[in-house]
């Protein structure tokens, strides 16, 4: 199987490593092994090891599920607030154009 190479900006890579660290800290606080977390998330232990390293090749849903299980606060812990925030975001999205249009731009002068 061919592995995907994912390149992240430094800011995104640092954020992912921070998120991974919070998940690992939560797992240890709960006293769970990586095998136990893997079973709860529904993935293999190799995937959980990749999560702990902050690998960008792991699906975002896997990170979110692991975070929720170990008690890392994603947005808020209150389901009603999450639903309200999602509804508000959907309303804002409906006010925006359905698609992005390229704006004519002046040529970039990058000849130094």
UniProtKB/TrEMBL annotation:
Q: Which InterPro entries match?
A: Cro/C1-type_HTH, Lambda_DNA-bd_dom_sf
Region of interest (Disordered), ranges: 89-112
Species name: Halomonas korlensis
Which ranges form a coiled coil?
none
A GO term for molecular function: DNA binding
Kindly provide the name given to this protein in its UniProt entry.
Helix-turn-helix
Residue ranges of every copy of the HTH cro/C1-type domain listed in the record: 23-50
- Pfam families, per the entry: HTH_3
């Amino acid at each position: 199987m061919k592995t995907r190479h994912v390149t992240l900006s430094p800011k995104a890579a640092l954020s992912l490593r921070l998120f991974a660290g919070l998940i690992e800290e939560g797992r240890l606080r709960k006293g769970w092994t990586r095998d136990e977390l893997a079973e709860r998330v529904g993935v293999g232990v190799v995937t959980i090891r990749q999560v702990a390293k902050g690998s960008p090749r792991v699906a975002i849903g896997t990170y979110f599920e692991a975070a929720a299980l170990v008690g890392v606060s994603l947005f808020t812990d209150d389901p009603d607030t999450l639903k309200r925030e999602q509804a508000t975001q959907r309303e804002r999205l409906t006010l925006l154009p359905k698609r992005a249009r390229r704006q004519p731009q002046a040529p970039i002068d990058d000849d130094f």
